[in-house]
Amino acid sequence: MSSATTTEPKPSVNYVFVDYENVHDVDLALVGSKTVHLTLLLGARQTKLDVALVEKLMAHASSVQLVRLNSSGKNALDFALAYYVGRAVNADANAYFHIVSKDTGFDPLIEHLRSRHIHARRHVDYSTLTFSAPPKPPAAGQEDVLTRVIAHLRKNTNNRPKRKKTLASHLTAVCGKSVTSTEVDALIEQLRQAGYLNIGEKEAVTYLLDLK
Predict the structure, then answer these.
(1) To 10 degrees, the CA torsion angle through 74, 75, 80, 82?
(2) How far is the C-alpha of 103 from the C-alpha of 19, rounded, in Å?
(3) How confident is the model at residue 78 (pLDDT cuts 50, 70, 90)?
(4) Of 108, 128, 148, which marks where a domain is finished?
(5) Contact 53, 60 (CB under 8 A)
(6) pLDDT in tens, 93-120
């Protein structure tokens, strides 16, 4: 009689696209990770890379793609990056897609992907680039608060805070003074991870409530 076997769930695959023309750095910890496919896009005028970076890229060539543009036209790199994101989404729509760039011009692309239930996010640097497992479902009480906040934000389309700090104050007023600042921060993070909003450069908040 054969014994039943259990298989561990496969870790999420993450595709990271670095706008090297905008962010002149690469987090070497990303290179070689089993769950990360890194695409580094360089502008036509970027002809030099750090030797240590090149050596590590070469050592993990199977999970790294280096793209250098031949022309330096306006938004040339942006269009190329969008092309490679589209290719990756078409190949593996269930993966997670990350754009590392300070350029807010990528946000409409992120919003469009999320409207099609694609996991996508832009990062202004590597500090918010984490590959943790999807968040656990909120407890019953937390779920009630989350549902109430989502309904409130959807209803008040003309009164949505534009910055994370003012959003935190706004949600404190909505939830009541008994809620702590830590709980409000956790609530904002739940909204972000669930795809209801995006927090970009200078903590500017983009709402995606109407796309879900």
Answers:
(1) -160
(2) 9
(3) very high
(4) 128
(5) no
(6) 889 999 999 998 999 999 889 888 888 9
Residues 96, 200 within the same domain: no
Asked if the structure places residue 206 within a domain, the reply is yes
> 75 lies in which domain range?
14-128
What is the CA angle 52-101-72, rounded to 5? 80
Residue pLDDT, tens place only, 171-206:
988 888 777 888 888 888 888 877 788 887 788 888
User: Residue 86 is encoded by which pair of tokens?
Assistant: 């589209």
What is the C-alpha to C-alpha distance for residues 178 and 21, in angstroms, rounded to an integer?
A: 46
CB 42 within 8 A of CB 21: yes
CB 25 within 8 A of CB 40: no
* Residue 149 phi, psi dihedral angles, 5° rounding: -65, -45
